[in-house]
Amino acid sequence: MNTHDRKLRHGMIMAFVLLLGACATSPEQPSEAERARAALDELQSDPALASRAPLAIREAELAVTAAEDAERGTELAAHLAFIADRKVDIARAQAETRLYVDRREALREERDRLRLMARTQEAEAARRDARLASLQAQATREEAAQLRREIDELNAKPTDQGLVLTLGDVLFETGEATIKAGAHNDLDSLADFLERYAERDVRIVGHTDSVGAAAFNEQLSERRAEAVKSYLVSEGIRANRITTTGRGETTPIASNDTAGGRQLNRRVEIVIENPSVAGR
Amino acid sequence: MKTQIFLSRRGALIVTMALALAACASTPPPVASLESARQAVAQAERARAADTAALELSEARDKLAAANNAVKNENMLIAQRLADEARVLAELAFARAERADAQRVNAEIVEGTAILREEILRQAGGPR
Questions:
Q1: Three-state SS string across chain A, please?
Q2: Residue A96 in contact with partner chain B when CB distance is under 8 A
Q3: Average pLDDT over chain B, rounded to whole?
Q4: Between A235 and B3, residue with greater pLDDT
Q5: Residue of A90, A124, A131, A132 to mutate for B, most B C-beta atoms under 10 A
Q6: B85 touches chain A (CB under 8 A)
């Protein structure tokens, strides 16, 4: 008895629900224009866009209203909704286009500002570079002048191989390879020079006159060149910058027949080599 | 020049067809709507919508072709609607092509600004 009642009540409720459902569907069918209306609302509530395509938005509004007014479920409603959808899209595209155009001026100003900044910076850099270059040029000029002065002081002759400095026979006693006391002045300025221009190597070449045996003279000239090297090393010049040669009597620069010529031939030549290009 | 001749010939054809149909049918073909749609498509094409709004443009062309077909089949109501739909599609293609152009111009400016900014930073950080 009890279960029967319950079944009956269930049946009635279900019938009622179905009835309600039937009532609801028919008049409450969604409008074809719903999507267009939502899109239009969104566009109109966007503060960046709403005012930027007034004409197109008004046209879209008319199209949406017309679509809403059409009888639902008809081909006309579908057609008008199609039109309304596109009209809203057109209005949005136009508003966005307008927004791009309106923002363009500010973008250009920003770009122009940076362009000016870049140019100013470039000009400053150029000025700085020019100043640096002129300072460097001046330094180079001063260096060259300094070198010239020092070469003059040294009494050296610039040649293709380098600076050639000839020390006369005042350095040594006849037949000796020991540097005379008091003959150090020339060697000291040479040592100073080599110290300052550390990239220049030096060749020391000893020569004699033709008095005496040639073999002895060669040895003597070699020992004299070595003596000069030892002195320079004792003054702090690195030994591996210095090479020595003894030419004996083989390379006279004057006649050995006169005392004056022999004196000229007794000499030590110092060749200060030009710095290698890579070294500077 | 060639297209111009072609279009005007087609325009003449439509008018002729319209007159012929008007003589025997009660509903005249939507000549004005078809012409508006055709012009809207041409305008979108001139704005190079084929590059930037290809989908909308091809839809518009299809609808316009369908509208002309409907005229042939003497279905003037359908022709009218298809022509109107073709027109809004073409107008949408045009509007989106214009938007793409505007966006591209801005993007180029922004890109130029970014390059300048980078250059300035590099310069400022460089030799100092």
A1: CHHHHHHHHHHHHHHHHHHHHHHHHCCCCCCCCHHHHHHHHHHHCCCCCCCCCHHHHHHHHHHHHHHHHCCCCCHHHHHHHHHHHHHHHHHHHHHHHHHHHHHHHHHHHHHHHHHHHHHHHHHHHHHHHHHHHHHHHHHHHHHHHHHHHHHHHHCCEECCCEEEEEECHHHECCCCCCECCCCHHHHHHHHHHHHHCCCCCEEEEEECCCCCCHHHHHHHHHHHHHHHHHHHHHCCCCHHHEEEEECCCCCCCCCCCCHHHHHHHCEEEEEEECCCHHHC
A2: yes
A3: 86
A4: A235
A5: A90
A6: yes
What pTM was estimated for this model as a whole? 0.57
Q: List average pLDDT for each run of 10 residues in chain A, which is 280 residues long.
A: 66 62 58 95 96 97 96 95 98 98 96 94 92 94 86 80 80 78 78 86 91 89 90 90 92 89 87 67
Each residue of B23-71: pLDDT tens digit? Answer: 555 689 999 999 999 999 999 999 999 999 999 999 999 999 999 999 9
pLDDT value, residue B26: 66
From the CA of B13, how many Å to the nearest CA of chain A?
A: 27
Closest Cα in chain A to B92: A90
* A83 in contact with B, Cβ within 8 Å: yes
Check A122 against B123: CB less than 8 A apart: yes
Q: Return the residue in B56, B81, B108, B128 with the most chain A beta carbons within 10 A, the one to mutate for interface testing.
A: B81
Strand partners, A271: A164, A203
